[in-house]
């Protein structure tokens, strides 16, 4: 039972102030404020490393009504700096609920503010662009809050990837106890959840989501997760059949060590590469594209992407994007555009087994329009291995 509510303040760096409430009175935090338009998925968002260091506005009027469960985490830690909501449900009801969002916020000391007009706040962000802000349940003087904002380091000046990537490599596959909600769901629906392909997939961890690993496990792949700053030789040491570049937070152009390594892989090997979100941006930079910071980012579950032939509704979460330019390598094909602003949402190498997308095909919750991309990645690996085996047999 929630006993106490405390007055809290949100201040933006343009001087606008909002008054609300919190469930604790012991926090003051500042960071980049962004918004997510999804109707569900607050648990996944709070544990998604792509949101590392950000304060999230939930635009849906009420969050928390289905609680928190033990299966929907995207990482083992809370990644957001704080959350902003209109209403937080005090009494959730769902068969998978283990703890209410209210108690989860308190137990994990997650800074938060609710009871404010998130529609007005979001329109402010859309008009002015993402900005630094501060929320506090113990400081109320404008000058003190402004000082907090001034001392906040901008996202584009930090290497957020090194903050969230794994410290050391680890391996994981189905038979060593990695259980996912999706495999459980497939058992309920009587569908085949995996195929014992045993392909060796190296995930370069820029902030990998659990659901990405889940999809590869469903195909019976042996997954090796390695740090973002792994060297070219260390990656090849794992003898990968395919390499997946994961999602992650921050400015991709700062991750120059990974861009350099991916260039080496592209130039010196024929290993299939699949990039998701940050991974898409790293591959694009390695292929000569440029990235830039979006005015207010793409964060939600209903972003249309596609081309003249196809369109998909996708889940997206990024503040930077690949710039669409007139002149790029002739062996690169732009496969998808974001149909809201025509930034590059997908590309394919015509001569190398490389493709990437700016959205999340593993989306959960979210649309499953693009889940076929994991199957495409597996099929690409199969084709490369068959071609390699054919060449060896005929060379003999």
Automatic annotation (TrEMBL):
One of its GO terms (biological process) is L-arginine biosynthetic process. Residues 1-199 are annotated as: CPSase. Its EC number is 6.3.5.5. It is an enzyme of class 6 (ligase). It catalyses: L-glutamine + H2O = L-glutamate + NH4(+); hydrogencarbonate + L-glutamine + 2 ATP + H2O = carbamoyl phosphate + L-glutamate + 2 ADP + phosphate + 2 H(+). L-glutamine binds at residues 50, 248, 250, 278, 281, 317, 319-320. SMART domains: CPSase_sm_chain. It comes from the Eukaryota. Belongs to the CarA family. The keyword Metal-binding does not apply. PANTHER family: CARBAMOYL-PHOSPHATE SYNTHASE SMALL CHAIN, MULTIFUNCTIONAL TRYPTOPHAN BIOSYNTHESIS PROTEIN-RELATED. One of its GO terms (molecular function) is ATP binding. Keywords: Amino-acid biosynthesis, Arginine biosynthesis, ATP-binding, Glutamine amidotransferase, Ligase, Nucleotide-binding, Plastid, Pyrimidine biosynthesis. This is Carbamoyl phosphate synthase small chain. Small subunit of the glutamine-dependent carbamoyl phosphate synthetase (CPSase). CPSase catalyzes the formation of carbamoyl phosphate from the ammonia moiety of glutamine, carbonate, and phosphate donated by ATP, constituting the first step of 2 biosynthetic pathways, one leading to arginine and/or urea and the other to pyrimidine nucleotides. The small subunit (glutamine amidotransferase) binds and cleaves glutamine to supply the large subunit with the substrate ammonia. The active site is at residues 277, 360, 362.
């Amino acid at each position: 039972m929630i006993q106490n509510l405390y007055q809290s303040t949100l201040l933006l760096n343009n001087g606008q102030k909002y008054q609300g409430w919190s469930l604790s009175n012991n926090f003051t935090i500042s960071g980049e404020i962004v918004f997510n338009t999804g109707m569900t998925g607050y648990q996944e968002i709070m544990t998604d490393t792509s949101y590392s260091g950000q304060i999230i506005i939930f635009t849906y009027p009420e969050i928390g009504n289905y609680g928190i469960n033990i299966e929907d985490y995207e990482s083992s830690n809370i990644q957001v700096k704080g959350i902003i909501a209109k209403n937080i449900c005090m009494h959730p009801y769902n068969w998978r609920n283990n703890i209410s969002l209210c108690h989860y916020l308190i137990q994990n000391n997650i800074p938060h503010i609710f009871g404010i007009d998130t529609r007005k706040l979001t329109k402010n962000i859309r008009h002015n662009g993402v900005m630094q802000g501060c929320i506090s349940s113990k400081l109320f003087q404008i000058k003190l809050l402004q000082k907090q904002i001034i001392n906040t380091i901008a996202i584009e000046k930090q290497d957020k990837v090194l903050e969230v990537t794994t410290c050391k490599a680890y391996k994981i596959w189905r038979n060593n106890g990695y259980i996912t909600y999706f495999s459980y769901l497939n058992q309920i629906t009587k569908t085949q959840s995996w195929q014992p392909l045993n392909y060796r997939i190296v995930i370069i961890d820029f902030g990998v989501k659990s659901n990405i690993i889940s999809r590869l496990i469903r195909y019976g792949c042996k997954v090796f997760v390695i740090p973002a700053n792994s060297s070219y030789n260390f990656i090849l040491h794992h003898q990968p059949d395919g390499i997946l570049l994961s999602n992650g937070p921050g400015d991709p152009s700062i991750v120059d060590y990974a861009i350099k390594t991916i260039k080496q892989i592209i130039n010196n090997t024929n290993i299939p590469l699949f990039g998701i979100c940050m991974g898409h941006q790293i591959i694009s930079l390695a292929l000569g594209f440029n990235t830039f910071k979006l005015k207010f980012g793409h964060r939600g579950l209903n972003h249309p992407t596609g081309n003249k032939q196809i369109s998909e509704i996708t889940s997206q979460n990024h503040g930077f994007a690949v710039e669409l330019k007139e002149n790029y390598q002739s062996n690169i094909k732009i496969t998808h555009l974001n149909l809201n602003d025509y930034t590059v949402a997908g590309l394919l190498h015509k001569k190398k087994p490389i493709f990437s997308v700016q959205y999340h095909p593993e989306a959960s919750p979210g649309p499953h329009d693009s889940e076929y991309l994991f199957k495409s990645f597996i099929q690409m690996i199969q084709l490369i291995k068959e071609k390699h085996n054919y060449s060896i047999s005929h060379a003999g």
